[in-house]
Model the fold of this input.
Amino acid sequence: MNENTRKFDLNTSREHEIKRSLAMVYEALSEKGYNPINQLVGYILSEDPTYITTHKNARNIVSNIDRDELLQVMLKEFLAIE
Done:
C-alpha cells in the first residue's frame, strides 16, 4: 500500500481540458480550409466568435473557454513552465 499523499491539482486538469479543446478547434478550422492560427488570434484579440467555424461545434467549444484562462495556458506552454 502506498502511503504517500497524492496531490490533486485542479488547475492542471483544467489546463489539459483547455489544450484538448483548443486542439479540437484547431482541427475543425484546418478541415474547413482556414489558417487556424490566424483565426484563433483574431478570436482572442476581438472575442468575436465568427472567427471560429461552427464545424464540429468548434465555435461553441471555444466560447466555453475563458479568454484569460486560454492566454494563461498558451503563455505557460510557450514558456514551457508549470
